[in-house]
Amino acid sequence: MIKNIKNINSNMQNKKKYNLEDGINLLKKNQKKTFIESIDIAINLGINPKKSDQNIRGSTILPHGIGREIKVAVFTQGDNIKLAKKYGANLAGGEELIQTFKKDDINFDIILASPDIMKSVGKLGPMLGPKGLMPNPKLGTITENITKAVKNAKKGQIQYKNDKNGIIHSTIGKINFSNKKIKENLINLLQSLEKLKPIKLKGTFIKQVVLSTTMGIGIPIEISTINEIIEK
After folding, report:
1. Per residue in 15-33, pLDDT tens?
2. Which domains does the chain show, CATH number per domain?
């Protein structure tokens, strides 16, 4: 591990910023050989997280997914339970599923709910809220259209929100993805973010983008090289 970090550091060239293509190639050059690492992104936004109207929260469907199955749970009732399971939900149910969540530490990537059961789901707030999994209408995770929501989630939908420092953290794929797929996923996420830019925000919205792998250090990407791709 120490040798690997030294190799990565020697390639960082004093924390210079890389164009997107070179940054991805550097990630691949220094990847771990024992397992397929995820590619993570940290996006530093020029927002003031203390102002409620500047906080960013949204979701998008990455065109190439994140390289693994997305685990989806659905809180709903009646025929929607069968529909949710039919279209790929890992778990679906009503009051009985809520009771299961209260007893067990169950991990999911996305949790969906229909409006008619949210009063009961709300009791799980202390458990789901800190994990960023509480269903929210702004994210499309509280919806009447359970079928569409499950389909979108299984296709590669990710949810994101800024942390207390104004940084968005997300996974955009696997190191064995082609450079083209990695770039298309990244650009999709940034375009989704741009649509949520606060109206009253002054200055630069996306200030810095850093890519990393599961076991690697961050590689700063030159913003201008990303903007060139977005604007094409």
Report:
1. 689 999 999 999 999 887 7
2. 13-56+162-230 (3.30.190.20), 72-156 (3.40.50.790)
